[in-house]
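Q: Could you fold this chain for me?
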Amino acid sequence: MTLTQRSAGATAGIGTVTGNWFRVHRCAARPPRLRLVCFPHAGGTAQLFHDWPARLPRDVELLAVRYPGRQDRLAEACFEDMDMLADAITAALKPHLDRPVALFGHSMGAAVAYEVAVRLEAHGVIAERLLVSARVAPHRAGAAETHRSDDETLIARVRALGDYHAEVYDIPELRELLLPALRADYRLIETYRPETPRPLRSPITAYAGRDDGSCAPDAVRAWSDLTAPGGFALRSFPGDHFYLVPHEAELVADVAGRL
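A: Sure. Below is the predicted structure, expressed as structure tokens.
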């Protein structure tokens, strides 16, 4: 699959749910030129990408991944194993592979997006581009045991990353609902330690917040090990781990320019 055309301007469609796994934001073009699959962070939801469709080219359809154990999938068991989660999302993507796809993942979502890209390649589908945000390369992640900590320590870890929606943990009712998914996600990403991750045929673009203490610059640049020479690009923005919220317009413009 190759992309030779870019479109300017955007028209957002209304997000609809297909199956359990994706909130699909239809674009103006039918069929779309490309589908951008977006993976949220640990404890995160598809809502992170709610405003992206209005900023994307009018021929790009956005699929926001909906992890189990939160929002309207609250009653479903969370995944605590990377292989199981990536397998499930890859299987759910099959009906959407009639068009080229690109993958964007933020934080934990970057690692999940990479593993989905690996699985797609095994089935002969080469993602147009893997875009990873606020996450070190899989083979450069250090050991961590936050998922074994008590609730206060886990929440403190989340707050240290930035202020994005951290206030929800101050509300006892919401805290009780949200903590199981957050802990499961931390268990998933902290036990994901591939020693020799597989290089991709897709180009990789990495994004980072300049004040994000969780992402050492050299460990972010190590994503370049997982694509062909000349296939890696890095861009940083002002801000912390959740730089993509205040800089959404600039980030999405950069993403769109690479599709």
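A (continued): The chain has a mean pLDDT of 91.
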